[in-house]
Amino acid sequence: MNVFNIIEEIEKVDPEVYERLNPRRAAIKNITSFGSKVAAAALPFALGTMFKKAYGQSSSTVLDVLNYALTLEHLEAAFYTQGLAKAGLVPAANTSYLALIKRDEVAHVKFLQDVITSLNGTAVTAGTYDFTGGNNKGNGPFKSVFTDYAQFLAVAQVFEDTGVRAYKGQAPALLGNQVVLTAALGIHAVEARHASAVRKLRHDLNQDANTKPWIVSTATLGNDTGVAAANANYAGEENVSQGGVDLVAALKVSNAIASASFDEPLTKEQVTALVVGSFIVTT
User: Which stretches of the chain are assigned E, i.e. beta strand?
Assistant: First the structure.
């Protein structure tokens, strides 16, 4: 996500953004020149301070959404960090590939922490995780997650697919704050690329033609991870209707094609039920 583009994106929906931020339009409009003078890590705080003055204090709803997103980013960052640290788990040919995903997840954590702090909020801390899905018992459905590379990738796919749908589910709550919405959509796009990348790795490993870069889930097929325990993470993905239009009937396509054309959003409650008490330890 390129934070230097945020102001330009806001200008598309609010042409007066520069005047709101500072009457010295030229000075603010040239913010991209700060890149060589100010550490990128400091930008979220600076932007958050300016936007608070321009648009008012951030609501508790926005902070709740940001902390919810941060909770998921902590989970993913810890997962890739632990997996890449496990000797012999990831083939050498794929190490740099997955290291880039880890880098992005760690960057998302830092970015969200800084933005929450800049809005006078308190960022949630990382939790305790059981990546077998067993709530700190180590006996969940993914017992071999850090000894079996195929299972590691399967869990990665579930996390990434769920993350994409989770960000989509929270977009409506951010409609009143274009700044935060822009940032969230930037992360959403990166998570979608992660999901496709992991699916490509699984396809290459298993040589499974059914593993696509996108989610394929139907009432008869179920989820396409091959892991029955992940069915709940794909609830609703069999939907073939968009905007009140039955795509199968209107476009004369199969259920699989129609359902794969859109990722369905997940609510905060749905995602929390999927990860808290299983992957995020509560006892």
Answer: 241-242, 245-246
